[in-house]
Amino acid sequence: MGEKTFTMRQGFQHSLEELQQNILRMGSIVEQTIAKSVECLARQDARMAAEVVEGDVVVDEMELKIEEQCLKLIATQQPMAKDLRKIAAGFKIITDLERMADYSVDIARVAQRIMETGQPLIKPLIDIPRMAELSQLMVKQALDAYVREDTELAYTVARADDQIDMLHNQVFRELLVFMMEDPKTITQATYLLFVSRYLERIADHATNIAEEAIYLATGERKELND
What does the domain layout of the chain look like in residue ranges? Predict the structure, then answer.
C-alpha cells in the first residue's frame, strides 16, 4: 500500500512538472510573438504582421489545453496546500499570457493600419523596441520565478515594470511634440501611442505572473502593480 501511494505521488509530481513545462512553452511562444509584433512595425513588414495575427490561434489553443490539464489535476488528485497553489497560479498565469498575446496582435494590427496609409514611419523607433525587449525579459523572468519559486527574481520583474512605465511616459512626451509641430503626424503618432500603451499593459501582465510566483513561494498575496 505504501509503495502504491509513493508511486501515485510520483505520478502526480510528474504531472505538475508537465504542467509547468507546458506553461513555459506557452510563455516562450508569447515572448516570440511580442518580439515579432514590434519587429513587423519597425520593418513595416506586412507578411510578418499577418503571421502574428494568424498565430494567435496557437496561443488560444494552448490556453485551453493547459486549462483542461489544471482541471483534470484538481478533479483527480484533489491537491492540497502548495500543490493546489501551484495549479491555481497556473490558471492565472495562462490567462495573463493569453492577454499578452492579444496585445501583440493589437500591435501587429496597428502596424498593418500604418502600412495601409502608405506613410513612412514619422521617426525611427527606439524606445518602443526597447520596451518590447524589456517586456520579453520580464515574461521570461516571471515564469522562471514561478517555476523556481524565486521571490527575489519576482521582485526584479516588478522593478523592470517601473522602467517600462518610464519609457511609456517618454514615448508619450516625444510623440506629443511631433503632433504639436506637424498635424499631419497626428494619426500615426496616435497609433504609436497605442503600441506603447499595449507594451505597458504586457509588462503589467508579466508583473501579475511575478505576483503568482510570490504567492506560490510564500502563500501571501503581494500587489506589485502600482
Answer: 1-218
